[in-house]
TrEMBL record:
<keyword id="KW-0520">NAD</keyword>
<dbReference type="GO" id="GO:0051287">
    <property type="term" value="F:NAD binding"/>
</dbReference>
<protein>
    <submittedName>
        <fullName>Glyceraldehyde-3-phosphate dehydrogenase</fullName>
    </submittedName>
</protein>
<dbReference type="InterPro" id="IPR020828">
    <property type="entry name" value="GlycerAld_3-P_DH_NAD(P)-bd"/>
</dbReference>
<dbReference type="GO" id="GO:0016620">
    <property type="term" value="F:oxidoreductase activity, acting on the aldehyde or oxo group of donors, NAD or NADP as acceptor"/>
</dbReference>
<dbReference type="Pfam" id="PF02800">
    <property type="entry name" value="Gp_dh_C"/>
</dbReference>
<feature type="binding site">
    <location>
        <position position="117"/>
    </location>
    <ligand>
        <name>NAD(+)</name>
    </ligand>
</feature>
<feature type="binding site">
    <location>
        <position position="34"/>
    </location>
    <ligand>
        <name>NAD(+)</name>
    </ligand>
</feature>
<feature type="domain" description="Glyceraldehyde 3-phosphate dehydrogenase NAD(P) binding">
    <location>
        <begin position="3"/>
        <end position="149"/>
    </location>
</feature>
<feature type="binding site">
    <location>
        <position position="321"/>
    </location>
    <ligand>
        <name>NAD(+)</name>
    </ligand>
</feature>
<dbReference type="InterPro" id="IPR020831">
    <property type="entry name" value="GlycerAld/Erythrose_P_DH"/>
</dbReference>
<dbReference type="InterPro" id="IPR036291">
    <property type="entry name" value="NAD(P)-bd_dom_sf"/>
</dbReference>
<keyword id="KW-0560">Oxidoreductase</keyword>
<dbReference type="Pfam" id="PF00044">
    <property type="entry name" value="Gp_dh_N"/>
</dbReference>
<feature type="site" description="Activates thiol group during catalysis">
    <location>
        <position position="176"/>
    </location>
</feature>
<keyword id="KW-0547">Nucleotide-binding</keyword>
<dbReference type="InterPro" id="IPR020829">
    <property type="entry name" value="GlycerAld_3-P_DH_cat"/>
</dbReference>
Amino acid sequence: MSIKVLLNGAGRVGKAVLKQLLEHKKFEITIINDINPYIENLVYSINYDSTYGKLADKFKIIENNFIKNSTSKIKITNVDSLNKIDLKDIDIIIDSSGKKEDINLLKQLPVNAVFLTHPNKDADINVILGANEKELNPTSHKIISTSSCNATALLPALKLVDEKREILCGDIVTIHPLLNHQRVLDGSFVGSPTREVDCNFEFGRSSTQNIIPNKTTTITACSYVLEKFNKELISSNSLRVPTDTVGAINVTLFTKQTSTKEEITKLFLDFEKNQKFPIVLNNFEPLVSSDFKKERFTTIIDHRYLEVKNNMIKLLLWYDNEWGYASKVVEILKYYEKIKKGK
Ligand SMILES: NC(=O)c1ccc[n+]([C@@H]2O[C@H](COP(=O)([O-])OP(=O)(O)OC[C@H]3O[C@@H](n4cnc5c(N)ncnc54)[C@H](O)[C@@H]3O)[C@@H](O)[C@H]2O)c1
């Protein structure tokens, strides 16, 4: 029998999750809830996407707030809180709305698990593949955060280096595409209810005309997964750039033991060879950000920019913050179901 899923919030991440989950017959998205009241607009934005193109098997609206394509029939609801939805046939919720819902409310929902697509310190667990998936326990973890796109890309690399060389301190700069809470042209910034944003004035400026510096919650998100990787150990900031998707992280680490470039190269090559999930991909080609669009691997090491000097390691990582991150949400879901069944 298929696992019935409710998708809450069909924005950038929600739609990437939807499209990837449609490929997995084990999961059936039976409800999509979004505060967008226009079902015509919702179905249009699922069928047509400027970043990832047209959906081959398009949805159309059928009777009573249902949409349908050749394989799936999905009910559309339009409420602002999950406790207003009839959940009697739902096994799992994926909440990609960004709403910071009361955790106690989420815990009381009559479903097996709620997956949050944002870091959340009150969740039962924050999971990043390649970092702490072995701690995931379907019996005791009901509210499961799948962390952030940046932390998903970064933490497997930090863990790997730390296990071999012990990280003493470091710094990261994330270079991140623009997001839906930003402005197209200059305007006053209006606080987003779905995001914690510190740099309000900068986010009121035109996202298409500027590189916007801001703080990032990446390291805090890492610390929810593995406590060691916190803001005391690693400093951070971010540059928001006018591209649609694919981020990069410039990472500088100082380690207890010294390394050579060959040793660090081998570390990532060996990891890629032996990994169970699509995490590390080693790139030696002269590629640019759009070449990583729709890439499932989310810690793509660009070896052209790997630098190792004594106890300093400098890495450049790539990741598709929408599609790649959504693929990890789906992988975590599949892994959760697998260990739940004791396989
Ligand atoms: N975009 C990214 O690169 C990215 C990557 C990883 C994680 N995330 C996280 O995923 C979440 C969504 O981000 P996004 O970029 O997809 O945002 P988005 O603005 O594109 O999409 C959010 C969607 O949720 C809907 N929504 C808002 N409040 C709702 C509510 N109360 N109930 C139901 N639907 C609601 C909106 O109408 C919209 O369709 C955020 O928590 C974000 O931090 C985003």
